[in-house]
Amino acid sequence: MAGYLVSDNRKVTTHRFIEMKQKGEKISMLTSYDYTTAGIVDRAGIDGILVGDSASNVMAGNSTTLPMTVDQMIYHARSVVRAVKRALVVCDMPFGSYQTGVHDGVVNAIRIMKESGCDALKMEGGVEILDTVKAILDAGIPVMAHLGLTPQSINKFGTYAVRAKEEKEAAKLLSDAKALSEAGCFAVTLEKVPAALAEQVTREISVPTIGIGAGGKCDGQILVVADMLGMNQGFSPRFLRRYADLNTVMTDAIGQYVTDVKSGDFPNESESY
Ligand code: KIV
């Protein structure tokens, strides 16, 4: 099956994201962490690829995103950038690379941009990190904000449950989104928040909201690629739609290969020199 037919083959920019919101065109995003997957995702017509620090869970098997380092994010982002021709490539700033202050944040942001070749960075947090976000924007680096469930703060939250259900947290999220968009962030990721709150944020800020578990009224959607392809069977949050069952496809194919090797069927004459 062919991918989504893109009407515009030009490289997607952060400005295009904002234009898409203005035109009411939904923005599609997925994560990728490696060259092969990113090439498939890009050719299928995705608008944006996030090199997420969820690589920590998906690629390395950690239980949180906290262990990711700047060097590891650069390795993954560089692999993705080599494959991508059209999509906007956004790289996560990992835990510890900007929480220690403005100077560290700018130094690490510049390093990730220089060494990975990605187009933009994503950072978790609200007004607490506003000065650092502003300094990174001042350095000419586009920033996507990330509010709601911010996995780098999982030890503070203590749970991956839906955020901002209470009025006080919802009001803070709305004012954080306004402050970050007014500061110049080109988009705001909203993770695991009530759909009504995400709709209000989407209405009240001028830059696109990209939702994951934030309902259908966001300007765009993002999922973790391994989850939506059904590679990972143990993770079934309500917001996840599985578009394939690659776990079964891969297990069956590998099982068949094992059988063929054991029986001597592989390789046959036409597969030999
Ligand atoms: O790291 C990641 O994959 C993310 C998405 C869940 C938004 O931040």
TrEMBL record:
<keyword id="KW-0489">Methyltransferase</keyword>
<feature type="active site" description="Proton acceptor">
    <location>
        <position position="191"/>
    </location>
</feature>
<dbReference type="GO" id="GO:0005737">
    <property type="term" value="C:cytoplasm"/>
</dbReference>
<dbReference type="GO" id="GO:0008168">
    <property type="term" value="F:methyltransferase activity"/>
</dbReference>
<dbReference type="Pfam" id="PF02548">
    <property type="entry name" value="Pantoate_transf"/>
</dbReference>
<feature type="binding site">
    <location>
        <position position="92"/>
    </location>
    <ligand>
        <name>Mg(2+)</name>
    </ligand>
</feature>
<comment type="subunit">
    <text>Homodecamer; pentamer of dimers.</text>
</comment>
<dbReference type="GO" id="GO:0000287">
    <property type="term" value="F:magnesium ion binding"/>
</dbReference>
<dbReference type="InterPro" id="IPR015813">
    <property type="entry name" value="Pyrv/PenolPyrv_kinase-like_dom"/>
</dbReference>
<keyword id="KW-0460">Magnesium</keyword>
<keyword id="KW-0808">Transferase</keyword>
<keyword id="KW-0566">Pantothenate biosynthesis</keyword>
<comment type="similarity">
    <text>Belongs to the PanB family.</text>
</comment>
<dbReference type="InterPro" id="IPR003700">
    <property type="entry name" value="Pantoate_hydroxy_MeTrfase"/>
</dbReference>
<dbReference type="GO" id="GO:0003864">
    <property type="term" value="F:3-methyl-2-oxobutanoate hydroxymethyltransferase activity"/>
</dbReference>
<feature type="binding site">
    <location>
        <position position="124"/>
    </location>
    <ligand>
        <name>Mg(2+)</name>
    </ligand>
</feature>
<feature type="binding site">
    <location>
        <position position="92"/>
    </location>
    <ligand>
        <name>3-methyl-2-oxobutanoate</name>
    </ligand>
</feature>
<comment type="function">
    <text>Catalyzes the reversible reaction in which hydroxymethyl group from 5,10-methylenetetrahydrofolate is transferred onto alpha-ketoisovalerate to form ketopantoate.</text>
</comment>
<feature type="binding site">
    <location>
        <position position="53"/>
    </location>
    <ligand>
        <name>Mg(2+)</name>
    </ligand>
</feature>
<keyword id="KW-0479">Metal-binding</keyword>
<feature type="binding site">
    <location>
        <position position="122"/>
    </location>
    <ligand>
        <name>3-methyl-2-oxobutanoate</name>
    </ligand>
</feature>
<dbReference type="GO" id="GO:0015940">
    <property type="term" value="P:pantothenate biosynthetic process"/>
</dbReference>
<protein>
    <recommendedName>
        <fullName>3-methyl-2-oxobutanoate hydroxymethyltransferase</fullName>
        <ecNumber>2.1.2.11</ecNumber>
    </recommendedName>
</protein>
<dbReference type="InterPro" id="IPR040442">
    <property type="entry name" value="Pyrv_kinase-like_dom_sf"/>
</dbReference>
<keyword id="KW-0963">Cytoplasm</keyword>
<feature type="binding site">
    <location>
        <begin position="53"/>
        <end position="54"/>
    </location>
    <ligand>
        <name>3-methyl-2-oxobutanoate</name>
    </ligand>
</feature>
<comment type="pathway">
    <text>Cofactor biosynthesis; (R)-pantothenate biosynthesis; (R)-pantoate from 3-methyl-2-oxobutanoate: step 1/2.</text>
</comment>
<dbReference type="GO" id="GO:0032259">
    <property type="term" value="P:methylation"/>
</dbReference>
